[in-house]
Specification:
single chain, Immunoglobulin-like, about 40% helix, binds heme C
Length: about 120
């Protein structure tokens, strides 16, 4: 597990902290609303997104996923490509981790990934 330490002036840190404590943004289109619903159904048992029905605690809180530089405990840069690869097959990327491969099709995963990308 990798850990990044980011040192910031107090005001910048306080702004970051206040933003992290906010609920996740509300979906702004029907496609993103579908992504949120699918996320709650398939992923919410293990992940929390504050402000939604997803309240799982086994995996990381994803309320502000896109504010992170890396995912999977520093294993991957947090880019759309790596994020898609991770949710499609996390065991291939990090064997033995506690997120299972969910066997969702590309068309099922796409709205979920698009929704995740709004979680800034
Ligand atoms: C059975 C529980 C479980 C389910 C279901 C699950 N996850 Fe995860 N997820 C985890 C765990 C545990 C991790 C942490 C893995 C690690 O870094 O070792 C994780 C990590 C992640 C990460 C990386 C977050 C970060 O900051 O490192 C993302 C993104 C993610 N999951 C998305 C999803 C999506 C999208 C779904 C549904 C399609 C999903 N997960 C379903 C358990 C789960």
């Amino acid at each position: 597990m990798a850990l990044s330490v980011i040192a910031e002036p107090p005001a910048q840190f306080d702004a970051w902290r206040a933003a992290q404590l906010q609920k996740a943004p509300v979906p702004q289109s029907p496609r993103l609303a579908t992504g949120e619903q699918e996320f709650v159904s398939y992923c919410g048992i293990c992940h929390t997104v504050r402000g939604t029905m997803a309240g799982g605690r086994l995996g990381p809180d994803l309320s502000h996923l896109m504010s992170r530089h890396t995912i999977a405990a520093g294993s991957l840069p947090n880019t759309p490509g790596y994020l898609s690869g991770w949710i499609a097959d996390p065991q291939h990327i990090k064997p033995g981790n506690l997120m299972p491969m969910l066997d969702l099709s590309g068309p099922q995963l796409a709205p979920i990934r698009d929704y995740l990308e709004t979680l800034k």
